[in-house]
């Protein structure tokens, strides 16, 4: 017997990664929304860091706990159905996986590190220059709206696209306000083509974060009134 709980907040970009993979794979599992402003014992029981996504998987009575977003996504991708890692027959191509995992560590993680100062603090001039460089590299990677790993693997959707998307989702939503300095002066036509290609997928549309809610979250952060992502999520409609 198998059971699975996926603990999330719908406005957390890391949790969105897992939600997008769940939707892509059409996995039926219990989704539990967590209030990150008042973290519950149930969340800490799975993840001692009190973060999302956190996943509880019960198989034959044994409880397995996962709580790093990429590891949660990789586990979800192991379920039957289309894969975010190219396969040779029924087996994931180890060379393709190595290339994707290198991109996750050396490029997507760097993109996220460039994004963080703009979300959580007032970015320095050094932060701005670094972000412009990193965003430009991502734009080149998805030239013409192609998927992220096209240069290495052909134009196929991979885990790299899923890992990057929630952060580009936020830049797109707030590019003319809070996050304008991340993209100022850049021609990002390829990145925006890629973004629109991604949102054309029905499984992406299921868990998109509404722009007005993202704007509300970031305004609370900038006003020092942010206690953490709270519930119900509709409070960010105000």
Automatic annotation (TrEMBL):
GST N-terminal domain mapped to chain residues: 2-84
Q: Which CDD domains match?
A: GST_C_family (cd00299)
Q: Name the InterPro entries for this protein.
A: Glutathione-S-Trfase_C-like, Glutathione-S-Trfase_C_sf, Glutathione_S-Trfase, Glutathione_S-Trfase_N, GST_Omega/HSP26, Thioredoxin-like_sf
Q: Sorted alphabetically, which Pfam families does this protein's record hold?
A: GST_N_3 (PF13417)
Give a Gene Ontology cellular component term annotated to this protein.
cytoplasm
Domain GST C-terminal, residue spans: 93-228
Look up the domain of life of the source: Eukaryota
Family annotation (PANTHER family): GLUTATHIONE S-TRANSFERASE OMEGA (PTHR43968:SF6), PTHR43968
Protein name (database record): GST N-terminal domain-containing protein
Organism of origin is Stentor coeruleus
The organism's taxonomy opens as:
Eukaryota, Sar, Alveolata, Ciliophora, Postciliodesmatophora
């Amino acid at each position: 017997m198998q059971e699975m709980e996926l603990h999330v907040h719908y406005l957390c970009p890391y949790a969105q990664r897992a939600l997008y993979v769940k939707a892509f794979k059409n996995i039926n599992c219990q989704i539990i929304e967590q209030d990150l402003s008042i973290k519950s014992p149930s969340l800490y029981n799975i993840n001692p860091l009190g973060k999302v996504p956190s996943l509880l998987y019960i198989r034959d009575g044994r409880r397995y706990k996962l709580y790093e977003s990429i590891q949660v996504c990789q586990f979800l991708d192991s379920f039957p159905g289309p894969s975010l890692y190219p396969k040779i027959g029924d087996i994931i191509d180890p060379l393709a996986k190595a290339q994707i995992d290198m991109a996750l560590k050396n490029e997507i993680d760097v993109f996220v590190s460039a994004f963080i100062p703009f979300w959580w603090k007032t970015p320095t001039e050094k932060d701005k220059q670094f972000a412009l460089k990193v965003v430009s590299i991502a734009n080149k990677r998805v030239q013409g709206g192609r998927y992220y790993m096209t240069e290495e693997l052909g134009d196929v959707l991979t885990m790299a696209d899923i890992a990057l998307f929630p952060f580009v989702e936020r830049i797109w939503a707030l590019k003319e306000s809070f996050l304008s300095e991340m993209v100022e002066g850049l021609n990002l036509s390829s990145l925006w083509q890629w973004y629109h290609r991604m949102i054309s997928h029905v499984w992406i549309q299921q868990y998109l974060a509404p722009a007005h809610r993202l704007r509300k979250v970031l305004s609370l952060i900038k006003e020092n009134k942010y206690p953490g992502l709270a519930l119900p999520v509709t409070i960010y409609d105000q």
